Amino acid sequence: MTSSGAEGLLRTRAAVLHEPATPLVIEDVALDEPQAQEVLVGILAAGICHSDYHYMRGDLSCPLPAVLGHEGCGVVEAVGPGVTRVAPGDRVVLMWRPACGHCRFCLTGRPALCEIGQRSRQTGGLLDGTSRLHLRGAEVKHFLGVSCLAERSVVAEQSVLRVAPDTPVEIAAMAGCAVVTGVGVALNVIGDAPGRAVLVLGAGGVGLSCVMGAMLVGADPIIVADLSPDKLALAAELGASHLIHAGEEDVVEAVTGICPGGVDWAIEAVGLTQTLEQAIGCLASAGTAVAIGLGHKDARFSARINHLVQGDRGVRGSLYGSSNTPLDIPRILRLHASGRLPLDRLLGRTYPLDAVNDAYEDLATGAVGRGLMKP
Q1: Whether residue 51 lies in the annotated active site
Q2: Residue 49 annotated in active site
Q3: Distance of CA 43 to the CA centre of its chain
Q4: Annotated active-site residue in 51, 209, 228, 323
Q5: pTM above 0.90?
Q6: How many independent structural domains does the chain possess?
């Protein structure tokens, strides 16, 4: 990290996406000091997530150029005027949907849908719509208000959550997206489910978190489908009772062979039309398919109307695990600390910032576990 530049700005090395379908570029980016209710965070670890990869490929769009990264953990280095939630030296989890605390979604316990978070995503700025990032005299955008594929980042106070200083940085980073998304679906959408059948389609970081969450809520059987034998093997270690190699078996036939009436819950953690349609096809009467994987911005799916109506089946989405993140992330970390949620077994390879493109190439070609970047 560099303390300041000639213009009096902080500086940081960061992974910048200039255009879709091009590699990330490690740039020396100028960084403004945190303004009112903003926080300067030194990044300790950042997760390698498919969501960033969708923007890198152009499946989804955001204001560019931007410093990517939305799943991370860091330490507070400085705070702007009016900050009360954290202080320098605090270890924090970064949250990619800041919450205002007073809109209708925040007041009903659904801060992932907060209106200010949606505005931040659209503008590529912080909560006031402006950026603290600059490169060669031009503005660089923030990604989901976080931009943690960097040595340091300025974020809104509402985007950080203080955690215990001894929380492992790798666990804290994953908790900010993959884990709260997957475990959150089990806790907040499925709920208490002893002996109820759950299918998870996709055994990446989020899907494996779903498996651990399904174990927590007592689901049985827990069926996992994926194309990778290595990912399926890890799913079995984490609690899956039945495995389906989706490249060799018909998923719907295999699931109904295990559960003749179908499953109560089918969680789609891939973001593809085919897998969401498979999820719906595997449902028992009164079952629900839950879509949690992001796909291409134009992706659509089809379902037989009578299959839904006559079986009273449902299809819904879930963003960020339908979590109240300031409550659920600490709960998840407590479950890990008590040994009930073995998040350390989810860890994959660690990469330096300079190898961030290698990390996303590995992700795209089936890396097992959650990859992490450490500056």
Answers
A1: yes
A2: yes
A3: 17
A4: 51
A5: yes
A6: 2
